[in-house]
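Still learning. Show one?

>
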Amino acid sequence: MTFREEEYNSLIQDIFHRFPSVADAGFGGAYKPGLRHMEDFCKALGHPEKAYRTIHIAGTNGKGSVANMLAAALTASGLSAGLYTSPHIIDFRERMRIGGTMVDKQYVFDFLQTWLPYITEHNLSFFEITTGLAFRWFADSHAEVAVIETGLGGRLDSTNVITPVLSIITSIGLDHCDLLGHTREAIAGEKAGIIKAGIPALIGTYDSETAPVFEQTASHLHSPLIFADQASAMPDLIGHLLPMMDLQGSYQAENLRTVLTAIDLIKPSFPELNDDEKVHNGIANTATLMDFHGRWEKLSDSPYTLCDIGHNAPALRHNFAQLDALLDSGRFQTLIIIYGIMADKDLDAIIPLFPSRATIILTTPSTPRALPANKIAEHFPSTSDIHITADVAEALTQAHVIASTASSPLIYIGGSTYVVSDAVKALKAK
């Protein structure tokens, strides 16, 4: 059935508003733990998730980068590779791609029109809807493999209806504690829920706090367990590839190691991956090939502007340290940080990580989940160079005013996916 653009937009807005999404309701309102609804939906859809091989990825930080790198390597090797990730920056179709190309609007429109009665009757969540949409699209598009990223946790995540050829867990940090647990061990237990009986499981880094959880789970399920940093670390290859990559965040070294180890593990299932040159070219050009955004991404040369969706203390520790290193290098002399945060984040753990030399512009992104900028300001020391703005567009304007009279300025935008999304939209509007 054909559609007019306004009909498509109206239908998408209806889905956003009628069914719980994280952007509107937060994880507490949108997260529906348990697999029964998703299992029933997959059955109604004809079990599309069984039509192709899958790789399943969970973790607190790094899972999006690892998922995109793997999909890029598979695509560059000649495979028709699907990729399902979240959240999106601008268009929710970013969540599902094949070879870097988003799902077509016509397919989305037809799917939603067909399945809206079922979706309404069973009151599916926004994430359950998009997961079913992605699974069905991959099958209808004859994907040979799909890289599937969890939305939250693992054990009870909607994506955990698949049986992959490899389960990957990238990192464990204290995030979404109200839903996943208040210790790293408890959170590891939730992430370990994606490990399947007899299926190899790859953990990014050995950690004495969380490793016993993974070891116990893998032993119980008779699943081979590999820690990427204890496997062939490939330091020479990592050192060779890192400078070539279009993903330039310092944290990508750990993600790259995980991806290279994963590729070694899945080569028996995907002989196409035996061509190292194609694999390495795919990884090096992940952002370009997969149209991947929001990870240490350059938005502008003048003034030089970076954005990153890292939003919790472990991620921001890496990012702020890299900003400090850029100042120390002499390449930039003025650092301006545009920052906003969701109300459920541990702000007190993040504040001490801010570079002391930064001018900080606090802002409130366009989501009900955001902590107002004036509330963020209350957590900063009185000696901080703080500016408060009403929204991200105003924060960008103020940053550009400061940068116009500054010496060698660098603007960093982050703290939340929603801050980055609003910034990209504002820059596009200009």
User: Anything to note?
Assistant: DSSP finds 18 helices and 14 strands in the chain. Residues 5-290 form a domain with the UDP-N-acetylmuramoyl-L-alanine:D-glutamate ligase fold (CATH 3.40.1190.10). The chain has two domains: 5-290, 297-429. The longest helix spans residues 105-122.
